[in-house]
Design a protein that fits this description.
Elements lengths: L8 H5 L17 E3 L3 E3 L3 E3 L5 E6 L8 E6 L7 E4 L11 E5 L5 E5 L4 E4 L12 E4 L5 E4 L5 E4 L7 E2 L5 E4 L4 E3 L1 E6 L2 E12 L5 E6 L3 E8 L18 E7 L3 E8 L6 E7 L2 E7 L7 E6 L14 E3 L8 E3 L3 E3 L2 H5 L7 E3 L9 E9 L7 E3 L4 H10 L5 E3 L10 E4 L6 E3 L5 E7 L25 H6 L1 H10 L42 E3 L1 H7 L8 E5 L2 E7 L5 E7 L7 H13 L8 E7 L2 E7 L7 H4 L10 H21 L3 E2 L9 E3 L5 E3 L7 E2 L6 E2 L2 E4 L5 H6 L1 E2 L1 H17 L15 H10 L15 H18 L10 H9 L24 H7 L5 E4 L4
Parallel strand pairs: 25-33, 35-39
Antiparallel strand pairs: 1-10, 2-7, 3-4, 4-5, 5-6, 7-8, 8-9, 10-11, 11-12, 13-22, 14-15, 14-21, 16-17, 17-18, 18-19, 20-21, 22-23, 23-24, 25-26, 27-28, 29-33, 29-34, 30-32, 31-32, 31-34, 36-37, 37-38, 38-40, 39-40, 41-44, 42-43, 45-47, 46-48
Helix pairs in contact: 9-11, 9-14, 11-13
The structure holds 2-acetamido-2-deoxy-beta-D-glucopyranose (10 copies).
EC number: 2.7.11.1
GO biological process, one term: recognition of pollen
Keywords: ATP-binding, Cell membrane, Disulfide bond, EGF-like domain, Glycoprotein, Kinase, Lectin, Membrane, Nucleotide-binding, Receptor, Serine/threonine-protein kinase, Signal, Transferase, Transmembrane, Transmembrane helix
Length: 840
């Protein structure tokens, strides 16, 4: 459920080195000679029976492809595809070596689907192609010289012994390219390869250009961005070569015949799988990017990203300040950080940043021959040098990397990482001017959304649409504070900060039942505040006089003790001004109780749906509440270390503090997920009226289901009406259809609750924008709905150009897409909270 947990390494090292699953070599040949061919249906099998080559059909496809897969591993795991962009349909093709010595896939009519590059047949004798036990398919001339090999043309998989990178003498760039989809091996949008400009680094890129992830320069032991790589692991050995003729990364599985391992570029992540000997499935060993800080340039130029504190963590390096603080509130960091005091060249010094991933080295220069001290002198002597670092940390620091342009994509690691020395004006150095300092790196914190561009295609296209007029690499940010092993001090506008400053003293109290029972008069009905999706809530008063909200979880949460405690610890780490704070828990027999801070003004539904009290919330207050909820939800979805889907977002779960600031409650009880790109099918838990169609009908929920609920909530806040009875004009049965109708009539402002007072001019445009964003959120298709990041940006940015919403996914009046009488009938019930245990 939680991302980034890797199996303990020891476990992997102890894998027995036994091959139990490879079938004994079949009688099939491993070679194709000149003038012979391999027909569809026949296969080559490598001498040791490890790999098999032949024609295959991917799941959910009808086309044939020539590929290589592991023999004896089911389901078939394709590691290489020849004709990935030329599917064979409507014909039967075969593989042969043609008269001039090229491998060719052609059908009987001579139509060529694929061929290896024309080879140089000046060698002696007839060429032969052989499938090796390494998975390499090699075409050799009669003299044994390699004419062509599949390892030089990777698909999406890196096998042991394959090289990822460049042969500089021939200009060959070996990189991985994703499959377009699991059923379509044609080249997808993401690539993973080595960039040899400046100091070489690995990059995952989108569309061949936009960087998604960067693993940093090789430091002699590992990539700077992957400090957990173990250079001397007895099973895996990594090697990085960078000399005049070659720049590549490779790994070998060392003397361990039983460990089968492969790297796959799967959508935008690099995944390493191992097949344990005797195992029954691939297990994911690790996967990159690991977290938001791995997303390229997450914190902009001169920013530092750090997730160690458990809260979103972007900051400016000490001596730098947000270039455009106003934009930070709109989460727009495109301007990055700017230097406080200009450099004056002669009087400058260096600030030491410890334990970091070195910034992008595309424009950096390296000199391996000098010492780090000489590097420092060289940097100091050249006014255009902005930072330096050792180029190798193997056997002590040595060598020199120098940056003279922007420092981009720095992250801090809780352990491991390297030292980076950044040039600052003397007056900005924290102490003893000039010397490397170990103290006080003041960081203002913000979070960039650049990662969102790259999270998924749906997201990508949405953003493209959203910000077409605003340049390409928009990223956004917000103020925040965090602590970590770099001492940090939050700066500036505290208004939007979260409470993670309190992370250090994060203590979850374990209350005993007697205390809880006493504080709530033994759960007396008069202390009951309400009943939510996950249980009843009581008002309690602790001995010190502190008022708390006590949530008694209903019995369906049949978690084990350890699991429950675990989850409570995780929930307690989710801290944000727009989330209700968890103070502790109580476990007693079957009882599971959560204790939260108490919110004076109870829940939002008490105001917006109450004719008397709704006047207390004027438009600007309502708009602030909408923004606050968006911010809290965004934190849950994206910024917190654990991606959390709320699953029961509704007005009753938005609590208001003394100053009417909204705080999302009940988020903790939703499951904690590691991966927001997945949809999960679990128990359907939620509230009708707020549930997205795909969730209510199929039990498929994702962050987009929360987005749907958010959209409903916004319409409710604007209109002051619940998403059920608007029976005003007969056939209008839901708030969504009502809002949609008004929107299409160009009269969105009419949705505004007539009792709402407030601020004249912008009101009209703000209301209109809220309605438009809400309608985008409640669109029928989950893929069409924006992510919360885009939602937040759109709400806070008057200039944002928004797409036109499509038909909302509401219960009745679903138009021609409707397939489900059942849905309509269940959906028009009111908004009681229901629990459907799913049957899939
Ligand atoms: C392949 O066929 C061509 C033409 O039929 C012939 O000239 C050549 O000698 C053959 N090569 C081998 C290795 O049999
Ligand atoms: C063999 O295939 C290569 C590559 O497609 C092609 O250039 C060459 O002309 C072919 N040779 C013959 C004799 O068809
Ligand atoms: C083909 O081989 C000859 C002799 O081995 C060599 O001179 C020539 O450069 C090679 N051509 C290519 C395209 O590799
Ligand atoms: C990516 O990986 C996931 C899980 O490992 C798998 O379900 C999915 O099919 C993969 N996608 C592609 C395009 O291979
Ligand atoms: C991909 O890049 C090409 C040019 O390299 C560009 O024309 C195209 O619009 C890009 N596609 C996307 C989806 O960004
Ligand atoms: C790996 O271990 C061997 C022997 O223990 C040692 O000689 C070698 O220097 C080590 N390599 C690295 C990169 O630490
Ligand atoms: C570069 O390194 C590779 C692998 O160690 C080696 O085979 C090659 O000869 C080296 N090239 C040069 C020019 O040193
Ligand atoms: C640079 O800073 C040093 C020390 O603060 C000062 O002595 C010197 O005059 C400054 N030089 C310029 C050109 O401003
Ligand atoms: C490298 O330099 C180019 C050209 O000046 C610039 O466009 C690019 O942004 C720079 N990249 C980095 C990471 O500094
Ligand atoms: C200073 O650094 C820049 C950029 O690395 C380089 O182009 C220039 O030659 C250097 N100047 C001196 C005097 O070394």
């Amino acid at each position: 459920m939680v991302a980034g947990v890797r199996p303990p390494l020891a476990q992997l090292l102890l894998l027995p080195l036994l091959v139990t699953f490879f079938s004994s070599p079949a009688s099939a040949a491993d070679t194709i000679a000149a003038n012979s061919s391999l027909a569809d249906g026949e296969t080559l099998v490598s001498a040791g029976g490890v790999f098999e080559l032949g024609f295959f059909t991917p799941a959910s496809s009808t086309a044939r492809f020539l590929g290589i897969w592991y023999m004896g591993i089911a389901p078939q795991t394709i590691v290489w595809v020849a004709n990935r962009d030329a599917p064979i349909t409507g014909a039967t093709a075969s593989l042969a070596i043609n008269a001039t010595g090229s491998l060719v896939i052609a059908d009987s009519s001579g139509r060529v689907f694929w061929s290896s590059a024309p080879s140089n047949t000046s060698g002696t004798g007839a060429p032969v192609a052989q499938l090796l036990d390494s998975g390499n398919f090699v075409l050799r001339d009669g003299g044994g010289a390699v004419l062509w090999q599949s390892f030089d043309h990777p698909s999406d998989t890196l096998l042991p012994g394959m090289k990822l990178g460049w042969d500089l003498t021939t200009g060959l760039d070996r990189h991985l390219t994703t499959w377009r989809s699991p059923g379509d091996p044609s080249q997808g949008d993401y690539t993973f390869g080595i960039d040899i400009r400046g100091v070489p680094e690995g990059f995952i890129r989108y569309n061949g250009t936009a960087p998604v992830y960067r693993n940093g320069p090789w430091n002699g032991l590992q990539f700077s961005g992957e400090p957990e790589m173990e250079p001397n692991n007895s099973n895996f050995r990594f090697e990085f070569v960078a000399n005049a003729s070659d720049v590549y990364y490779t790994f070998v599985v060392d003397g361990a015949a039983g460990v089968v391992s492969r790297f796959v570029l799967n959508q935008s992540s690099v995944q390493r799988y191992v097949w344990p000997p005797g195992g029954h499935a691939w297990s994911l060993y690790w996967s990159l990017p690991r977290d938001q800080c791995d997303h390229y340039a997450q914190c902009g130029a001169f920013g530092v990203c750090d997730t160690a504190s458990g809260s979103p963590a972007c900051g400016c390096v000490h001596g730098f300040t947000p270039a455009s603080p106003r934009d930070w509130q709109l989460r727009d960091s495109s301007a990055g950080c700017r230097r406080v005091t200009p450099l004056n060249c002669t009087g400058d010094g260096f600030l030491q940043l410890r334990g970091v991933k070195l910034p992008d080295t595309t424009n950096a220069t390296e000199d391996k021959s000098i010492t780090v001290d000489q590097c420092r002198q060289m940097c100091l002597a050249n006014c255009s040098c902005l930072a330096y670092a050792a180029s190798s940390i193997k056997g002590g620091d040595s060598g020199c990397i120098i940056w003279s342009s922007l420092l981009i994509d720095i992250r801090h690691f809780p352990s491991g990482g390297e030292d980076l020395y950044i040039r600052l004006a003397a007056s900005d150095l924290p102490s003893n001017g000039g010397g490397p300092s170990k103290t006080n790196i003041v960081v203002a914190v913000f979070v960039s959304l650049a990662a969102f561009l790259l999270f998924g295609l749906g997201g990508f296209f949405f953003w493209n649409k959203f910000f077409r007029n605003k340049g390409t690499s928009q990223s956004t940010q917000r103020f925040n504070s965090f602590d970590s092993s770099i001492p940090l001090t939050p700066v500036q506008d505290r208004k939007l900060e979260d409470e993670s400053g309190q992370n250090k003293d994060l203590n979850v109290t374990l209350f005993d039942m007697a205390t809880i029972a006493f504080s709530t008069d033994n759960f007396a009905t008069w202390t009951k505040l309400g009943e939510g999706g996950f249980g009843a809530v009581y008002k309690g008063e602790l001995e010190g006089g502190q008022t708390v909200a006590v949530k008694r979880l209903s019995k369906f949460s049949t978690q084990g003790l350890g699991e429950f405690k675990n989850e409570v610890m995780l929930i307690a780490k989710l801290q944000h001004v727009n989330l209700v704070r968890l103070l502790g828990c109580c476990i007693h027999g079957e009882e599971r109780i959560l204790v939260y801070e108490y919110m004076e003004n109870r829940s939002l539904d008490n105001f917006i749906f109450d004719k008397g009290r709704s006047a207390q919330l004027d438009w600007s207050k309502r708009f602030d509440i909408i923004l606050g909820i968006a911010r809290g939800l965004l934190y849950l979805h994206q910024d917190s270390r654990y991606k959390v889907i709320h699953r029961d977002l509704k007005a009753g779960n938005i609590l208001l503090d003394r100053d009417m600031n909204p705080k999302i409650s009940d988020f903790g009880v939703a499951r904690i997920f590691g991966d927001d790109t997945d949809s999960h099918t679990r128990k359907v838990v939620g509230t009708y009226g707020y549930m997205s169609p795909e969730y209510a009908m199929d039990g498929v929920f994702s962050v987009k289901s929360d987005v749907f609920s958010f959209g409903v909530l916004v319409l409710e806040i604007v209109s002051g009406r619940k998403n059920r009875g608007i029976y005003s004009s007969g056939e209008q049965t839901s708030l969504l259809s009502h809002a949609w109708k008004l929107w299409r009539e160009g009269n969105a402002v009419a949705l505004l609750d007539e009792t709402v007072a407030g601020a004249g001019e912008h009101r009209v445009s703000e209301v209109r924008r809220c309605v438009q964003v809400a309608l985008l959120c409640v669109q029928e298709r989950a893929d069409d709905r924006p992510h919360m990041a885009a939602v937040f940006m759109a709400l806070g940015n008057p200039g944002a150009v928004l797409p036109q919403p499509r038909h909302p996914g509401f219960c009745s009046d679903r138009g021609s897409t409707s397939t489900d009488g059942e849905w309509s009938s269940t959906c028009t019930v009111n908004d009681v909270t229901v629990t459907i245990v799913e049957g899939r």
